[in-house]
Structures are given as C-alpha cells and as structure tokens.
Amino acid sequence: MKTAIIYNSQTGFTKRYAKWIAKSAGADCIELSVAKKKDLTSYDAIIFGSWACAGSISKISWFKSNIDRWADKKLIVFCVGGSPIDNPEIEIAFKQIFNESERKKVKIFYCPGGFSYEKMSVPSKLMMKMFVKTLKAKKDKTKEEQVMLKMISSSYDISDKKYIEPILQCLEK
Length: 173
Ligand SMILES: Cc1cc2nc3c(=O)[nH]c(=O)nc-3n(C[C@H](O)[C@H](O)[C@H](O)COP(=O)(O)O)c2cc1C
Prior knowledge:
Blueprint lengths: L2 E6 L4 H13 L2 E4 H4 L9 E9 L2 E2 L2 H5 L9 E8 L7 H9 L2 H6 E7 L1 E2 L6 H16 L5 H10 L3 E2 L7 H8 L1
Parallel strand pairs: 1-2, 1-3, 3-5, 5-6
Antiparallel strand pairs: 3-4, 7-8
This protein binds flavin mononucleotide.
C-alpha cells in the first residue's frame, strides 16, 4: 500500500512519530507545507499527524477539507498532545472535532508527546503562560487538573514508539 504520512509539528514530537511510522510502514514522510503543493493522487493511504492545540488539532481543517477528495483512500489521523494516553478528555475532544460521518471515513489515534518550552513559538509560550496562570488560580481543581498543572510547569517527554503500533495495525487491515 503506497502511504503518505503528512505531518504538522511545532516542537518536534509529531515529526518524531511521523518518522517512526514512515520507517516501520515503508511510507513517504512529508511536511504539511510541502504536501500542500504535492499531487497525492497516487497514494492508497494518507496518514495525517498534528499536535493537540486547545482541545482541537492544529491544521485539522486542512485535512478535513480534503476528506471527500480522498474518498478512495484509507485515511488515518494521529494527534500528538501533552496529555497521557489515559486522559478521558481525549475521546471527548475527538467526538467534538469529527462528526459521525467523518469518523466513518477516518480512523483517529492519540499519541502522547510532551512539552518543549525551548522549541515553542512565542505566541504558544504566551498561551501556555496564560493557561497555567488560570489553572493555578482556579479553586477546587480536579485531580486531572492538579496532575496537568504539575506536568505543564516545565518541559517533559512522554513519547514512545510503542504508541504507533495501533496505527500500523490499522494500516495493515
Ligand atoms: C498553545 C498550546 C495548546 C495546547 N493544547 C493542548 C491540548 O489541548 N491538549 C493536549 O494534550 N496538549 C496540548 N498542547 C501540548 C502539545 O500538543 C504538545 O506539546 C505536543 O507534543 C506538541 O507537538 P509538536 O512537538 O509536534 O509540536 C498544547 C500546546 C500548546 C503550545
């Protein structure tokens, strides 16, 4: 199966997952800005990977606008975020991002990434600063919020190659 992995990454975690998948699946790994200019018709499968941003997925509207054009292809999305894999908010967010019809056409996966304040853009750093401040000020924080606050106060890396396994299995099916 001729497969393209198209990725959008700010600080490198999504790129790392895209490369892991591409190597294991023998697929082409293409950065989003390059993919936008490319003819992708010859691919049997398109895998789009991008990072979680404020409850959504960065640049997901670009992918969604192509779903109908790619009706003949296997379509997979993987989202890389700062949350651990067992965060129940992930499934809730996916249900909001993709409607039922889209979920029939696209298989969606989550891969834990991390936070890299060293590589983050200035606007992203500012957004995170505001988010941390708001969360710190919140009274009666839930357990998840307390864990989250501790995690995002500094850089961390929870990425692991094992998280690509379900994606590879889906590709083979
Ligand atoms: C502005 C901003 C918003 C974010 N929102 C979320 C979020 O809603 N959920 C989440 O799990 N991670 C969130 N993250 C964390 C990133 O998704 C995480 O750092 C990811 O690993 C970045 O991937 P990249 O290295 O490919 O850019 C956010 C990060 C930034 C900078």
